[in-house]
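Re: beginner question about structure tokens

> Can someone show what the tokenized structure looks like for a real chain? I only ever see the sequence side.

Sure, here's an example I had lying around. Input first:
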Amino acid sequence: MGKFVISPHFRLHEWVAEEKGYFREVGLDYEFRGVWEGQELEKAHALANKVGAFQSFEQGREANVSCACHWTVNVAASRGHGKMYADAYSVAPSAIFVPPESKIRNPEDLRGVPISVGYQSGSHYSTIQALEQYMPASDINLSFADGILFSRLAKLVDREVRPLLLPRAARVPEGDGHDLHDGDHAHRAA
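And the corresponding structure tokens:
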């Protein structure tokens, strides 16, 4: 068997295991390989409308351990695109952000407003879950046209995007956005 390829996401436990030497201790011949390694993340994450994490599983990922939101991994595994490991789990604290100069101040202000999320990803489903307590699902207007995580973050910083959901780990630079709603979305390993 060749090297065991781990594609870390925002899962801290893999980085801790690496730093503490746990993989080496059990004799695992491994390497960390990011899905977009060697690419400029903002450009690599600028995917077409309605292309997201699930589509990358359909195409095949070049890793033994990869990650996406729970929904994506579960559906991908049920369709034969890998296996879901329930014990490899993380929760990404997230929030809906708007530029500081936005007139949107409360979650209720998002009624009918396009919100930038990743297609079939944690941001897609956790945004619906977060906003359903403030408005009917029919008033939640998701937009998938701005790509995934780092593409959306760059557009927020450059003031080129509507409200968006990002994990807290994305570290929105101070002064470039304020959050309207805190929430979580679950990630599973595949």
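Each token stands for a local structural state, so reading them left to right follows the chain. The chain is about 25% helix and 25% strand.
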